[in-house]
Amino acid sequence: MEFCKKCGGILVPKKTRTGVVFVCRNCGKKYNKGEYIKVTEKVQRENNIKIIEQKKENLPTTETQCPKCGNKEAFWWLQQTRGMDEPPTRFYKCTRCGHTWREYS
Ligand SMILES: [Zn+2]
Ligand SMILES: [Zn+2]
After folding, report:
1. Which of 43, 51, 68, 92 is the right S-S partner for 74, CB 3.0 to 4.6 Å?
2. From ligand 1's centre to the CA of 10, what distance in Å?
3. Distance 25 CA to ligand 2 centre (A)
4. How far is CA 87 from the centre of its chain?
5. What's the Cα-to-Cα distance from 44 to each of 21, 47, 48, 51, 56, rounded to whole Å?
6. Beta-carbon count within 10 A of 28 CB
7. Ligand 2 center from residue 76 Cα (angstroms)
8. What distance in Å separates the CA atoms of residue 33 and residue 58, rounded to the nearest whole number?
9. Ligand nearest, relative to CA of residue 43
């Protein structure tokens, strides 16, 4: 089974005049044979804070209170955690202790 590089959705083969293409069942992106990724490289769902933590770099900071150590400054970024039609969630990471939390609107 193959998965979409963009959203991690399942690809289904589709016959066209030029051959077989693989179409994402989730977002509709088309892939030519050999272009899609294999099951071992499956895109991880990114609602896991641990995964997001590994990617933060050169983030803007804002004045907000860390719930863990009380520090008044935190890095922040937006992350799409649910469906594409949902607004992105704002995450904070304390500049002092590194505690990461998300803002619930
Ligand atoms: Zn997709
Ligand atoms: Zn803190």
Report:
1. 92
2. 7
3. 41
4. 13
5. 23, 9, 9, 9, 17
6. 11
7. 13
8. 37
9. 1
Between CA 29 and CA 43 the distance in angstroms is 15
pLDDT at 12 over 80: yes
Model confidence over 14-35: pLDDT tens digits?
888 878 888 999 999 988 876 6
Please tell me the distance from the alpha carbon of residue 97 to that of residue 69, in angstroms, as a whole number. Answer: 7
- Catalytic (active-site) positions: 85-86
Side chain identity at 22, as an amino acid letter? F
pTM score: 0.44
Segments making up each domain of the chain, as ranges: 11-41, 49-103
pLDDT digits (tens, 9 = 90+) for 64-88: 999 999 999 999 998 887 777 888 8
